[in-house]
Amino acid sequence: MGALTTIVCSRIINDMCFSPWLSSKTVRQLFGKEERYSSAKSEIRGFIRKLIERKLARDAEIAENGNPSPLEKNIFLNLATDLLKRGIFSWKNVEDESNVIVFGAFETTANTVAYTLILLSMFPKYQEKAFEEILALFPDPGDFEVTYADTQEMVYLDLILNESMRVIPPVPVVSRQTSQDVLLSSGVVVPKGVQIAIDIFHLHRSKKIWGEGAETFDPEHFLPHHYQNKHPYAFIPFTKGIRNCIGWRYAMISAKITLAKLLRNYKFSTSFKFEDLYFVEDITIKLKTVPLLTLQRRT
């Protein structure tokens, strides 16, 4: 499955969210979107189906030779196929849930890594601090293994990732429907059944919350003495509460591993200015112009 396929499908789904009439197959055909959407969706479904089939075949092989490793039990696909075997999930349920994981993780994590590298290119002093931290853990360049324990040692990289997602949240707006009347702190009551939009992008840039430097990139926003007294919902790149992103820990770990390998081996720079970034709100946030980065190999 190619990256372009996922992008095509997600963009058409985005169009359907903001233009509900595109939920109709007939209307999509009239606008010339149905063929691309159907093709992309079929390719993604086929890819996921192969993963499930391989997993079930491997389970059958393991059953003949012994029990699976306990370390594998919490992997999403294992849990989904286990529910399938027990008759709780149908095959379609497994495909649908896997589809959600693919769409939820693919573009958001990739964008977060890319935008973090762009920001570090624009603010080299923070890049050097991250490099020094990574260099202490991995003195030799090239390909190296990063363990979970290693990711826990990358404290400054945590600050950088959080600040990157504050300034450029992967998903700029999320929607929710109230399940009961909700009394806001302002005294306004939002009735049950109302669709509301939460503007994460502007929440993360609020000067009332983050101070005068709210609209610039500064990892020190997340130093304990700056962040600990913030409202628990002041920073919600993965949303918050019982409907928060199910894969947020996995996303953070995978982003840290990727950034550690890139920043250890390359120095990133750009002539593009931070103040010239122009953001386009979508299901995932976009840049009108993507800055070009220059890479210099580190030794």
Structural domain count = 2
Mean pLDDT: 87
Order of helices and strands: HHHHHHHHEEEEHHHHEEEE
Give me the count of strands: 8
Taking all Cα atoms into account, the compactness measure Rg is 22 Å
CATH architecture of the largest domain: Orthogonal Bundle
Q: Can you count the helices?
A: 12
Q: In which order are the strands of the major sheet placed?
A: 1-4
| Overall geometry | globular
Low-confidence stretches: none
Structural class comes to: mainly alpha
Approximately how much beta-strand content do the residues carry? 5-15%
Give the proportion of residues in helices: 40-55%
Largest sheet properties: 2 strands, antiparallel
Membrane topology: Peripheral membrane protein
Enzyme class: oxidoreductase
Family: Belongs to the cytochrome P450 family.
Cofactor: heme
SSE diagram, text form:
Layout: H1 3-18, H2 25-30, H3 34-65, H4 76-85, H5 91-122, H6 124-137, H7 148-153, H8 155-167, E1 173-177, E2 182-183, E3 189-190, E4 195-199, H9 200-203, H10 207-210, H11 224-227, H12 248-265, E5 266-269, E6 279-280, E7 286-287, E8 294-297
Antiparallel strand pairs: 1-4, 2-3, 5-8, 6-7
Helix pairs in contact: 1-3, 3-5, 4-5, 5-8, 5-12, 6-8
GO molecular function, one term: heme binding
Family: Belongs to the cytochrome P450 family.
Function: May be involved in the metabolism of insect hormones and in the breakdown of synthetic insecticides.
